[in-house]
Sequence to fold (974 residues):
Amino acid sequence: MNLPSSKLTSLIEHYVIWHYGRAYVDIYNIWMNFVWFVFYFFSIGVLFNTLFQPWKRMGEEYPRGFAPAIALQTFIVNTLMRGVGFMVRVIVIAIGLSIASVVFALGLVVFALWTIMPVFFVALIVIGLTLLLFG
Amino acid sequence: MKKKERIEDLSVYPILLLEDFFPHQLRHKFFRALFPIISLLLVLFVLLSFANFYIPKGGGEAPRILSLIAPRVEGLLLIFFAFWLVIYLLETFHRAVFFHNRAFRIRRSYKNAPEGEDVFYEMSSEVAGIFYHAKNGDVIESFFNSHIGPDVLVRCGILADDIRQFLKERSQVLQMDLEDLHRESIVDAVDFSLFLYKNYPDFSDFLFKRGIGEKDFTGAVKWATRVESEREFQERWWSRDNLKKIGTLGRDFSYGHTYMLDRYSSEVTIGGASPSSRELQWENEVLAVESALSKAKESNAIIVGDDGVGTMDVVSEFSYRIDTRQVPQVLQDKRVVIVDSNLIVATAKEKAILEEHLIRLLNEAVKAGNLILVFDHFTSFVQGARSLGTDVIDILNPYLLSPKLHIIVLAPTEEYHRILAPNGQMMTRFEVIQIKQPENNKVVSVLEDMAIVLENHYPVIFTYPAIVEVVEAAINYITEGVMPDKATDLLLEIPPYMGQKGKALIEKSDILDFIQFKTKIPVGEIRPEEKTKLENLEVELHKRIVGQNDAVVAISDAMRRSRSGVRDPQKPIGSFLFLGPTGVGKTETAKALASVYFDNEDKMSRLDMSEYQGEDALERLIGSFDLGKPGTLTMLVKNTPYGVLLLDEFEKTGPDVQNLFLQVLDEGFFSDMSGHRVSTKNLIFIATSNAGSDIMYDAIQHGENVHALRQYIIDQIISKGTLKPELINRFDGVILFSPLEKKDITEIARLMAEKLKKRLREEQSLNLIVNEALVQALVKEGQDPQFGGRPMARAVKNKIEKLIANKIISGVAKTGATVELTAEELGTEITIPAKKPYL
Fold:
């Protein structure tokens, strides 16, 4: 294929403008999608809002009339169920938040790597050739 | 309006450049090749590292070889990885530009922008590519070589060889520049393809010669581009819409367990159709369900529709929208479950258990707090429970009021009207959502999606005209079931059938072939023996019908029009009113048609219309809703959807029934008792009537030509109010059957005698000699000016059959004997010896 070198220059120019321009916006958007997804997947907002609700609506109804012993018993059971619910939610939230932080951190790494990508590429070639040729 | 004046200004220009230097096909090849190489080098590298670690340093050859190989493997690995990285980056660059262009076009579409707003003209990467790669501005060749062009043409059933031929033979080369694209507002591949079609006669002629009109071409273009954009959407797995599909964890922590319900229910599954076509198809219905269930109380819905019309699809789509959080706040986090009501009734077996289980299940659902219960075939549940003595509606009633539980019930139309609608109290608790049979374009879109799935399972490719034909064939030739179900069923049957024939490209004619194979209705290519039959239909019919040339020609023409496909597909094959006195061959003509063309006299169904004159006539014909009884006409049409329907003594029927036939003859269908359409498009209607016979007699007695009085007779029938003028006009032809003349009677006598001879030969192994004496005896006995040829059948029975029976009983006519009746015998005497049997 006989292509003028001006086209190649133009292509490289477009690439560089994209790599150090709009690509950052795209990466940022995708990154935010993933962070959003971790929050979405672990339902972190919903779990926070319902933190003290009983586990799976389990519990007992308070007795009608005056029955302090049964009422106390019901109170204990219901409190326990809320406790279970709280524990499970806290664990899920904790896992979710940890993964979200990992995703967040990975995003930063990707940003950094993206910035040094050309250098990284040159380094790979240079080191690779050195090893191949000179052992 | 700002235009991009040069190709370099277009946002997709970098893609075009990239394609010049490093086309995507090549990139993908490299990508695929590099993956195993890098994996292999990586494994080697790990192995060598281990070896280096374990093999003791010092003397020996091994460490030396290792120290030689290891760094080189590492070096190769790094170099290949660098190459892989470059390709990956270029691919990402390509996609980023592509999707950016797409999003830009959607957001600020050149075409959709509000008037007066400053818009930027942007064309899609496909169009830009076609234009950019056009050699000497020849956009048509470039279109054929583009990404989308071949897809479109395959969907039109046009293959690479045809295209090459076209490029060689075309009379002009269509050249376009960027200015033309701007002027014609060509933005995407759809615009471009349609522009080519409309402005390049060579191209549209080329398509036309292959049976592709503008509608088919547009459909094919839209299908191909829709598949492409669907694929692009799937590729963007990182988009929020795609990520959402993975689901969530923990949303149900705050909602209760449902032990009993889980025993009797299942989750909703999503069908194979793509989101865009599901949305297109069910948008209004799903919104209706959403609004019904969003109400503060009595938030329940009845979805009414017949099996196969898609009631459960609406539920699936609704559930999908909940899962992907596209519903109002009040419906978010809800769980849609389908209750297996048959299982509840079957497990319970008795009233008390049934009620206990049902109430427990409902209580659980209320307590859980996020449930939407779906009862499929709710009417069967109501009836099943009723047989155990339980009133399900009564039990459900308090729950229907509760805002904590939503209930959706599905019911077939007829049962809904019969069982649920009369219950006024229940109806106030529900919003009724009627599911109608979808419009054809929606069914086409569903079938397009299904076709893509089928193409992944079978080595076939559907053309767009084939898909459209499946929809039309389902409507016209499949009498059982409703749309879109009967169309999808039909589509599913086609790939295995094509597999047997060893054909991969499924075209319109293949669908018609399959219809012929399945329904025995001749719709495919006309085969030689059928061609002969059609060409000689008059001759064949005249072998059974004496005279009545008008009738024979009219029905022969109707059959030929129907078979060649030039008839109006929305009407019956043909409809004729035969007027004439009794016994002149009206019924015989209908029978002859069934026997000659449809190969079987059973293909003629008969309705004695004199039986349908009372008030209940219509009900008996189309069925009674209250009694749940199907009608005679409905049954006849369903049993013989393709054939002849004889309406005897048509003038004797009442006005209601005449009105029914107005629709049947005009629109090719009628609605039965439960509102189902019954197609009559594959029937030939023959209505007979002896109205006006008296005028014909008078005419004959005065030596006038009956046929000259045709209009007068029709006017008389109308003025007497026997038949409505609009009904007479609906018939394709009103044909006069003139009274029989002497020579006709003789001919009929001969035909009758031959028929008897044939019957005796087959059933009794007797050889009856048809002599002149026999024919004359029949003429003498069978002629009656009032009843035409009809008494002749009686004469055959009373006279000839009687004589032969006596011969058989007396032992004269044994098996294999030849029997000849003489003039003497046929006079008054009865016993005459027969000839000896042939040995």
Summary: Chain A touches chain B through 47 residues (CB under 8 Å).
